[in-house]
Design brief:
CATH superfamily of the largest domain in chain B: ATPase, nucleotide binding domain
CATH class of the largest domain in chain A: Mainly Alpha
Shape of chain B: globular
Strand content of chain A: under 5%
CATH architecture of the largest domain in chain A: Up-down Bundle
Distance between the termini of chain B: 60 Å
Oligomer: heterodimer
Largest sheet of chain B: 6 strands, mixed
Strand content of chain B: 15-25%
CATH class of the largest domain in chain B: Alpha Beta
Structural class of chain B: alpha+beta
Helix content of chain B: 25-40%
CATH topology of the largest domain in chain B: Nucleotidyltransferase, domain 5
Number of domains of chain A: 2
C-alpha cells in the first residue's frame, strides 16, 4: 500500500525543488498507475477497489500539481509552512496590476489591427516571456528564503495564467474566422 | 505466460487453470448496438444474431402484456406503432425532465406528466425510462453472447461517448445493473477504437497522438488521445451532437426535390440514402424520384456536402487546440462510424491531418471490438498484458458559492480517478447549516451549469462568519462517477452523498425496477408456457378430429363417440378461455386419458393392417 504521508516529490522520487525532470515524472507516474489503478482490482474486494480509487486519486492529484508550474510553486511553499488560498489572496503591487491592465487592453484591441494574428502572436510571446521571468524570480526568492516574496511571485503567476488563456481564446476565434 | 492456454475449438481444455473467463465488449449506440468477444483464437469479433446480423438496431417495442421486441422486428413495426416503439434512447440517458423540453421537439414520444425526476415515456406496457429501454437492449446482447459462448459472462466493458457527463455514465451503469450485467468498466468510445487497432502495441514511438474521427448517423465526435507505453489519456474531445450521416442524405434529398420540382420528401430521403451509399463505390449514380430521373456525380455530391465536412474539420481544429497540439503531431487517425465510408470524408480527413486515416476495421464494429479486447484483459485472461487505460473527466466539477457563482473544484480533462478537497467557510454569524450544491460544466453561474446534486451539512457549531472550516471532498472513480463528502473540521460533523438523485434514479427505484423486471420475466415465462400449451392443445384436437373422421364409424360405438366428444369440447373450451398454462396442460392430459382406449384400438388395427399379406418370415427378417 502507498504511503499517503509522503510529499508529492517523494512520491515521484524527485528532489524537492522547482525545476523538475518531466521525463522522470512521467515515467514514475505511469509506473505508479500501472500498479495501483482500479482496473487492476476489478475482481478484488470492495475494500481493495476503494483503496485503489483513493490511491490513484492521490497519484493523479500529485501529478496535476507537479505538472503545473504555478501549482508546483505553491506546493513548495505549502511544504515550507506557507499556506494560502490564491482564490482570495491577491497581490497589492500597483505597478504590476497597471501593467496587467495594459496587456489586457492590448488584447482587446487586437481585432482592430491590420494583421490581428501577427499582433496576437507578439502579445502571446510577451506574456510567456514575462511569465518565465516570474518563475526565475520565484526560484531565486525561495533559495534566498524570502518566502513572502516567493508567495508574491506565485500570486502574480495566476494573473499570467489568465492572460495566457485569454490570448489563446482570442487566437482561436481569429483562426476559426479565417478557416 | 502459460497460465491460460488457448485450446482448439471442440477440443475440451483440461480442468483447472486453463479455464477462460467469459467476457464481452458492448457498444451501446444511439442507432445500433453491438456485442463482441475475444475468441479462443485470440482475436476479437462481433457476435451476430441467428440471421447473421451483428448490428442490433437500438429500438425496443413494448406490448400490452409487458413483453418486448428488440431490434429489426421492432423497427419494422415502428411506422404503425410509433408511441410504443422507442428508438435513440441513448439521447435521453441521464437527462432530466427539463432537458426533454430542449431535446423533446424531435422526439415522437409522449412523456408522462408526473413528479418523477427521470423522464418517463408512455407506452401500452406502462411508463418506461431510457434506462429501462437501454437495459432491454443490453439484455438482448447479453443473451446473444451467452448463447454463443455457452456460459454466463463474468463481466463486460460498455463504451460511452468521451463527453458523457456524470449522470449519463451513471444511467448507463444503472441500465447494465437492470440487465444483470457485471460492468468491469465504462470505456470511452474513442479509446476503444484505438485499442481495436492495437495502437497500444506499437512500440516504435514513446508517445503516440491519436485522433479518433467518429461520424455516425446523427452525431459527430472528435477525440484526441495520447498513448504512452500502454497508458491512454484522453486529451480533448469535441464534436457536434446534431451532425451526422443523416445530414448528408438531406443534402442530396434537397437537391433532388429542387431539380425534380417534386414534394415527395419521404421518398426523396430514402432515395438519397441509397444514392449516397452507391456513390461510395461509383463515380456516377442514376437518381429517380417518382417520374423524374437524373444523375449525380461524386464531384457534385462532394460539393453539396462541403459545408458539412468543413464543420467537422473545424471541430477537429478546436479539439487539437484544446489539447495544445498541432496537426503535424498526430500520428494516427482512426475512423469510426458508418458515415466514414464516404470517400469525401476519408479524403478530406486525410488531407486535413496530412496522412491516410485507418480504415481497415469495419467502422461500425471497431468500438465493440476494442471494448471486447479490454474486457478480456480485465477478466484476467491476459495476466501479462500491460495495457492500462486512463481517462479524464469531460466536464469540470464545482460548487455553488456566494452570489450564484460556481467555483471549480476539478477542472475538465483532469485524469481520473481523482480525490480533491476544497475548504469553505460560513457567510453569516452563528450559521449552523450549509447547503452543498454540486454542479458540472464550464460556465460561471449556477443557472448555466448542470446541477448534479444538493445536500445539507448540519451541526456546524455557532461561530462568527468565516470561522468555520468546511472541507468538501470530491472523489471521482475510474468510470467518472462522483462521490462528495462535506466535513466541518473543528467538530467533525459529516455528511456525504453519492451523486445521482437530482435527475438519476435512486437505489430504491433501481431495486424496484429489478424486481419488476424479474416479475416481468416470470410473467413472460408464463405467457410463453401458456402459448405453448395452447399450441399443444390444438395439435391434440386436430389429431383426434382427423382420427375420428377416418374411422370413428367403424371403430367406435355411439357411447364411446359421446365420451370422446365431451372430452373434446372440454379441452376446446379451456384452450379458448384459460389464462393458466397448468389448466390447459391438465385438460390435454385428461383428453389423452379419455382417448387412450381409442388410441390403443387404432394402434392394434394399424398393426393388423400392416401385417396383412405378409408372412411371418417377412417379420423375422427385419
Amino acid at each position: 500500500m502507498l504511503d499517503f504521508k509522503q510529499s508529492y516529490f517523494e512520491l515521484f522520487g524527485l528532489p524537492e525543488k522547482f525545476d523538475i525532470d518531466f521525463t522522470k515524472l512521467n515515467e514514475k507516474f505511469r509506473e505508479l498507475q500501472a500498479k495501483y489503478h482500479p482496473d487492476r482490482f476489478v475482481n478484488g474486494s470492495d475494500n481493495e477497489r476503494l483503496v485503489a480509487v483513493q490511491t490513484t486519486g492521490l497519484i493523479n492529484e500529485a501529478n496535476e500539481t507537479l505538472k503545473s508550474s504555478r501549482l508546483r510553486a505553491r506546493y513548495l511553499l505549502t511544504l515550507k509552512g506557507v499556506d494560502f488560498d490564491d482564490e482570495i489572496d491577491t497581490t497589492s503591487d500597483g505597478a504590476f496590476l497597471m501593467h496587467q491592465m495594459e496587456i489586457r487592453e492590448a488584447l482587446e484591441e487586437v481585432s482592430n489591427e491590420q494583421d490581428p494574428l501577427a499582433r496576437i502572436d507578439d502579445i502571446a510571446q510577451e506574456i510567456s516571456g514575462e511569465a518565465d521571468a516570474l518563475k526565475d524570480d520565484f526560484v531565486e526568492q525561495l533559495e534566498l528564503g524570502n518566502l513572502d516574496a516567493a508567495k508574491e511571485a506565485v500570486l502574480k503567476m495566476k494573473f499570467f495564467e489568465r492572460l495566457c488563456q485569454e490570448s489563446k481564446s482570442i487566437t482561436e476565434k481569429l483562426e476559426d474566422e479565417l478557416f | 505466460m502459460a497460465l491460460f492456454q488457448i485450446s482448439e475449438p471442440g477440443q475440451s481444455a483440461p480442468l483447472g487453470e486453463q479455464e477462460k473467463f467469459l467476457a464481452a465488449g458492448i457498444d451501446l449506440g444511439t442507432t445500433n448496438s453491438l456485442v463482441a468477444t475475444v475468441r479462443d483464437s485470440g482475436t476479437a469479433e462481433t457476435v451476430a444474431d441467428e440471421q447473421g446480423n451483428s448490428l442490433l438496431p437500438s429500438v425496443v417495442r413494448y406490448f400490452e402484456d409487458g413483453t418486448t421486441e428488440i431490434g429489426t422486428t421492432a423497427i419494422n413495426a415502428q411506422l404503425d406503432n410509433i408511441g410504443n416503439t422507442i428508438s435513440s434512447a441513448k439521447r435521453l440517458l441521464g437527462r432530466a425532465v427539463e432537458d426533454i423540453k430542449t431535446l423533446g421537439g424531435s422526439l415522437p414520444y409522449k412523456f408522462a406528466n408526473n413528479d418523477s425526476s427521470v423522464p418517463q415515456m408512455v407506452t401500452v406496457a406502462g411508463n418506461v425510462t431510457a434506462i429501462e429501454v437501454s437495459a432491454e437492449i443490453l439484455k438482448t446482447l447479453k443473451n446473444r453472447v451467452e448463447d454463443e459462448l455457452d456460459g454466463p459472462l463474468k463481466g463486460v466493458v460498455i463504451t460511452v461517448p468521451a463527453y458523457f457527463d456524470d449522470a449519463q455514465r451513471q444511467a448507463t451503469k444503472d441500465a447494465a445493473r437492470l440487465a444483470d450485467l457485471n460492468v468491469f468498466r465504462l470505456l470511452n468510445e474513442p479509446t476503444a477504437a484505438a485499442v481495436a487497432y492495437g495502437l497500444d502495441h506499437k512500440e516504435e514511438l514513446d508517445e503516440r497522438i491519436i485522433a479518433v474521427y467518429d461520424l455516425g448517423g446523427g452525431t459527430f465526435d472528435i477525440s484526441i488521445l495520447k498513448l504512452n507505453k500502454g497508458v491512454f489519456e484522453v486529451m480533448a474531445t469535441g464534436g457536434d451532437s446534431a451532425l451526422g450521416g443523416d445530414d448528408f442524405d438531406h443534402a442530396i434529398a434537397e437537391w433532388m426535390l429542387q431539380e425534380s420540382g417534386s414534394d415527395l420528401h419521404h421518398h426523396a430521403i430514402s432515395e438519397a440514402r441509397r444514392v449516397k451509399e452507391a456513390l461510395s463505390d461509383s463515380e456516377e449514380v442514376n437518381v429517380e424520384l417518382a417520374d423524374w430521373q437524373g444523375t449525380i456525380t461524386r464531384a457534385q455530391f462532394d460539393e453539396m456536402v462541403a459545408p458539412l465536412v468543413k464543420k467537422t474539420l473545424l471541430a477537429c481544429r478546436r479539439a487539437l487546440r484544446d489539447a495544445d497540439l498541432s496537426k503535424e503531431q498526430v500520428h494516427d487517425v482512426v475512423m469510426v462510424g458508418g458515415s466514414t465510408r464516404m470517400p469525401i470524408i476519408r479524403q478530406s480527413v486525410g488531407e486535413f491531418f496530412n496522412k491516410p486515416p485507418l480504415v481497415d476495421i469495419d467502422p461500425d464494429k471497431v468500438v465493440a471490438i476494442g471494448a471486447a479486447l479490454q474486457a478480456d484483459v480485465l477478466a484476467g485472461n491476459k495476466p501479462d498484458e500491460e495495457m492500462l487505460l486512463l481517462d479524464v473527466i469531460p466536464l469540470s466539477l464545482g460548487l455553488e458559492t456566494y452570489g450564484g457563482l460556481v467555483e471549480k473544484v476539478i477542472a475538465r480533462n483532469t485524469t481520473i480517478p481523482i480525490t480533491r478537497a476544497q475548504e469553505f467557510t460560513t457567510f453569516k454569524d452563528d450559521q449552523t447549516a450549509m447547503t452543498v450544491h454540486i454542479l458540472q460544466g464550464e460556465r460561471e453561474t449556477v443557472e448555466e451549469n448542470r446541477s448534479l446534486a444538493k445536500f445539507a451539512l448540519k451541526g456546524i457549531p455557532p461561530m462568527v462568519a468565516g470561522a468555520a472550516r468546511i472541507k468538501v471532498t470530491f472523489q471521482v472513480d475510474a468510470d467518472g462517477l462522483l462521490n462528495v463528502e462535506a466535513e466541518e473540521e473543528t467538530t467533525g460533523a459529516k455528511s456525504n452523498i453519492e451523486v445521482k438523485p437530482s435527475y438519476g434514479l435512486s437505489d430504491n427505484e433501481i431495486e424496484g425496477m429489478i424486481k419488476d423486471s424479474m416479475d416481468n420475466a416470470q410473467a413472460d415465462m408464463e405467457a410463453r408456457r401458456l402459448r405453448e400449451q395452447k399450441v399443444e392443445a390444438d395439435r391434440t384436437l386436430e389429431a383426434l378430429d382427423s382420427a375420428m373422421k377416418s374411422d370413428a364409424d367403424t371403430m367406435l360405438n355411439d357411447d364411446e363417440i359421446k365420451i370422446l366428444l365431451e372430452a373434446r369440447e372440454n379441452l376446446q373450451n379451456i384452450k379458448d378461455n384459460s389464462e393458466d398454462s397448468a389448466e390447459v396442460k391438465s385438460a390435454i392430459k385428461n383428453m389423452e386419458k379419455v382417448a387412450e382406449f381409442y388410441v390403443a384400438r387404432r394402434m392394434d388395427d394399424n398393426v393388423k393392417t400392416a401385417m396383412q399379406g405378409q408372412s411371418v418370415s417377412d417379420f423375422a427378417d427385419r
